[in-house]
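Incident log entry.

Two folding requests arrived from the same account within the same minute. Monitoring flagged them as a possible duplicate submission, but the sequences differ. Recording both here for audit purposes.

Request one:
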Amino acid sequence: MIELLTVATASLLAGFVDAVVGGGGLILVPALFSTFPNAAPATLFGTNKGGAILGTAWATHQYAKRVTLPWRALMPAALAALAGSFCGAWAVTLVNPDGLRKALPLILLGVLLYTLAKKDLGRHHAPRHSLGTQTLIASVIGVVIGFYDGFFGPGTGSFFVFLFVRLLGFDFLHASATAKLLNTATNGAALILFASKGHVWWQIAAVMAVANVIGSLLGTRMALARGAGFVRGMFVVVVSVLIVKTGYDAFLR
C-alpha cells in the first residue's frame, strides 16, 4: 500500500508538470525505479507509459476546449509522431544510445540559452505559415521527436514545445497544448510495444493513471488561467532540471 501511495503521489505531480509544459517523466520514472528497485527496467518504463497516457490525453482534451488548435495540421503530425515513436523503439534494439545520452544535456543547454536570450519568444501567439506549410513542419517535428521519444525519451514534451514556438510561431500556451496531442501519440505507440511484450503492471498503471489525470486537470487549469508567461517560466525551470539530470546521468553516474 505504501509503494502504491508513493507512485500515485509521484504520478499526480508528474501529471501536473506534464500538463503545463512536459517533463513529468523527471518525477515519475525515478519514483518507479526507487520504489521497485528489483523490477525489470522495461516493465517500469511500460508501467510509466500506462500511467501517463491518460493524463496527456486528458490535458489535450482540456486544452482543446479553451485553446484554438489547427487540427487539420496537427492530426497528420500526431500520426507522424506515432510512427516515429515506433521506429525509434525499434532502432534502440539495434543501436546503443550512449552517444545521444552524452549530447542531450548540451542540446538542452542550447535550447535554454536561446529561450533566455529571446525575451519575447513564445509570449505572443502569431502562427507564421499557411496550413500546408504548417502541416509539413508539424509532421516533421512529429516524426523526429517521436523517433527520439521511442529511442531515448527524456525531455520529449519540452522539445515539442520549443520547436512549435520556434518554428511555427506559437506562444508557449498553444505550443504546450499541441505538445500534449503529439505526446499522447508517442506514449500510445510506446505503450503498445511494451504491452505486447508483457512489460506493463496494469493494476499499478491504473492507479497511477487516475492520479495522473487529477494532476493533469490541476496543471491544465493553472496554465490556462495564467497564460503563456507562466508556461514559459515553467519551461525554463523544467529544461534547467533536465540539463542537470541528463548531465549527471551522462558524465557523473
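Request two (distinct sequence, not a duplicate):
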Amino acid sequence: MRVTFLGTSGAVPTTERNPSALFVNRDGDKLLFDCGEGTQRQMMRFGTGFAVDHVFVTHTHGDHVLGIPGLLQTFDFNDREEPLAIHAPAGTRGTIEDLVSVTGDTPSFPVRITQVSAGDTVLDGDGYEVRAIRTQHRCQSVGYAVVEDDRKGRFDREKAEEQLGIEPGPKYSKLHRGEPVEHEGRTVQPEEVVGPDRPGRTLVYTGDTRPTDAVVEASEDADLLVHDATFADDWAERARTTAHATGREAGEVAQEADAKRLALTHISTRYGGNPRPILDDAREAFDGEAFVPDDGRRIDVPFPDE
C-alpha cells in the first residue's frame, strides 16, 4: 500500500501546497481521495499515473472537488474508455453532476456517481474494503477507511518438511488454504503447519472534520491516520467555529485510537512554509509517529507484523 500526498493545503492553495487530494495504490488498485483544483497536474508531477477507477469525495467544498472537471478532461484527452466511479456523501449527487458537466461536454467514458453514508461499504475490493465513516464538518461529509482482510498465517515449511516429512508440492498449497491432507497414513491438519491469521492494513482519511468518536473507532490500531490539522492549538477557537481540527486534537484522536502513524493535513495558509507549531502540538498528544507531509511525499504502509 503506497500513499502519495498530492494536496495538503487548507482551503487556499499556496506555492508549496495544493488543495486536498490523496492517491492510494493498494496492490495495483488506484484510489483517489478528494480532488482539489490542479490534482491532475499533481498526478503528472509526482508520477502516480491516471489509472484511477474510483474517486472518493469527503465533501463538496471547492478545495476538495474543483479538480474533478480538469481531471475528467485530462482523462478525455488521454482517450480513456474505462468507467469511473465517483463516491460522495448522500445529498450531494447534484453538485457532483454539475462538476462532471460544467464544461458543457459529456465525458467519452461512463461516469457513475454513488451517494454514501457513514457505515456504508463503499467499495468491496479484492482483499479489502473502503468504508465510509462519520465526520463532523459544516456540510454533508464523510471520511473513508481502507480496511484489508486478514491474511493467512505463516506456513511453517521447516516443520512440514523436516518434522512431518511432507515434501514441497500441492499438499503445501492445500494446507495453506486451510484444507487437511492425508500423509503417511494420517490426516495432517492445517493448524499444525499454518500459524494464526495475520491482520491486514488499515488506512483512514478524514477529510475536513472536528475530532469525532466515529473517527477514533474507525482508526483503532490503524497503520496510517490522515487527519485534518488545519490549525495549531492557539487557533483552537477558530478550528471549532470552522469545524476543523487542531494538530493537538488530531494527536489526541490518534492516541486514543492507538494508531501507528499520523499524517497532519489541510494546513492553513497562515503557517506559510512553517507548519511546525501544528506538528509540535500533535507530538505532545500522540506517542506514535506524527508528521506533516509535503506535497509529493510518498510513503509505504507496511503490514502490522512487519
